[in-house]
Input
Amino acid sequence: MIVFPAIDIRGGKCVRLLKGDFAKETVFSDNPADMAKKWEAQGGQFLHLVDLDGARAGHSENLETVKAIIDAVHIPVELGGGIRTMENIDEVLCLGVRRVILGSVAVRDPELVAKACGKYGDRIVVGIDAKDGIVAVDGWGVSGDVEVVTLAKRMKEVGVRTIIYTDISRDGTLEGVNVEATAALARESGVHVVASGGVKSVEDIRALKAREKDGIEGVIVGKSIYMGTLDLPQAIEIAAEED
Output
């Protein structure tokens, strides 16, 4: 299981939001590239980047910052946030991003997701953000009017191999990850799932690791490693343990 340290970018800074609320922002660094180097130095194997401005604008807004991060580290990065056209996908992957995360467009234009998967294979990942089992789009501000499992199955049909599942009600709260919903999504959809939202401590990592056989292949850690409730090296060690 892979542990993905998260770097959320807004206005070129490294920030964290509470439940996706832009009015509840905490700035952790004015230099996201330095933060990326910190997580790499602690054993990070893959960075999870989110362009928060892009999520609202509907197209990438912080690519200069993303490029600075790519240039600063030797580990791969994935990027999500407002990427909704093939041109934007091409642009991001050409920049050096390893995986593109498609969110709102998966609901509104599954044909684009199919086209992207046909061109780039497993470099295309879909992010499903949900509250009470219903998908949210447009930076979490709008209901997508579709159930999580239904969308996941659709994505599998068009070629998606990995889904990042975020429980919005827990994101940034440190209340614990939604292990049961994550495992159920992986099991029912047949797609590998990366857990996100609410991770607080090593107990969350252990609980997800115990459900790895259901199809949980990773976990994104954000606020917990910034606030110090989770030790990244320890989390990586637990995630890498053999069954």
Remarks:
- Residues 29 and 35 are 7 Å apart (CA to CA).
- The two ends are 11 Å apart (CA to CA).
- The first strand starts at residue 2 and ends at 10.
